[in-house]
Description:
The chain is 20% helix and 37% strand. Strand 6 and strand 7 form a beta hairpin. It starts with a helix and ends with a strand. The chain is built from ten helices and 28 strands. It is globular and about 75 Å long. It has three domains: 222 residues, Thrombin, subunit H (Beta Barrel), CATH 2.40.10; 87 residues, Pdz3 Domain; 92 residues, Pdz3 Domain (Roll). By secondary structure, the chain is α+β, with helices and mostly antiparallel strands.
Amino acid sequence: xxxxxxxxxxxxxxxxxxxxxxxxxxxxxxxxxxxxxxxxxxxxxxxxxxxxxxxxxxxxxxxxxxxxxxxxxxxxxxxxxxxxxxxxxxxxxxxxxxxxxxxxxxxxxxxxxxxxxxxxxxxxxxxxxxxxxxxxxxxxxxxxxxxxxxxxxxxxxxxxxxxxxxxxxxxxxxxxxxxxxxxxxxxxxxxxxxxxxxxxxxxxxxxxxxxxxxxxxxxxxxxxxxxxxxxxxxxxxxxxxxxxxxxxxxxxxxxxxxxxxxxxxxxxxxxxxxxxxxxxxxxxxxxxxxxxxxxxxxxxxxxxxxxxxxxxxxxxxxxxxxxxxxxxxxxxxxxxxxxxxxxxxxxxxxxxxxxxxxxxxxxxxxxxxxxxxxxxxxxxxxxxxxxxxxxxxxxxxxxxxxxxxxxxxxxxxxxxxxxxxxxxxxxxxxxxxxxxxxxxxxxxxxxxxxxxxxxxx
Length: 457
């Protein structure tokens, strides 16, 4: 027997089920227009844009090094090889076709860094090998090229016109699932100081960006490319609604140089600087605490010829406000050689405008065999000193496959920041640190957005 409460509830349940079925049927047949107007949808825009977004597969090798192998006694006792072993690695990311005629594709440096082979898969399933045109680790931008017919390039937008609250769509290949679209808004602009890249001026968005989305497109509702998805902020590696994209204005300027020169030819002024603090502002008699204080002007530099002085407070570059030294570094560090720049500075209570010309940084190279025979095959170059005065090192400009340096594990783009625990600021200090006899070399390297130690016997 059914209890009384069950008998009373049965009609109500049937009525609810009937209503649910009716509502489901009604929902399934939502009319395409309401009051003579079509319902809003992103589908028409995405149908135009998605063929321009590709999947990028980078095939390479990574070293497997057991910490116990650093112990000479352990190696000798077990008769183990000294050379590090390697395993094949496959990284999956995204890219955006920006030039259909020449097959140029924008992506992230960290997607293709140290790749032996790059493959590009189009929206229609076709796959092509790609050639690396150029890469810029400091901004995490890279350009690759494929030769294929029927390519469709995306329209480049103007990231300078973005506003917080604008709707945006992220397109990429998250977790290798295949092309995926997510939507959201611009959460913030001008994000920097995150320690993700050397030059930071990120668009922050809550459109879902996950591993594999790197190098993909951030587009506005017109289908214009406004950013290159590059990173997320997450304690566990998943999306929590904080993603970052490189503004297309920055990416386009870098792309143009990579296509023309194969690298970014950044100019320099020859200054170092630090943030203006309240204490410094009081000492200089300045109202407010926004700006960047010049702490050094290199003799004979463009800044010295233009008349910049130690103690000048830079408050604007080409009319754009400078609140922190990071903003000064971004504004100046991305300008090409020969570009004239206008700096607004505060000096002794006066506001001055000083024009200077970006000049080529002094760049020395040194062959690895002149540092140590075990580094033969590598070519080292100075890392340009940052505007903040920090950084420096010896970058591996190239390394010959199969050479002692290659077998030791060095790769193009690696930056040596210390050797045997001695700081390396340039190629001269690298050679000085290596002097001293046939001992094992302990290299502290910066590779991409990470670091590692390399022991060379």
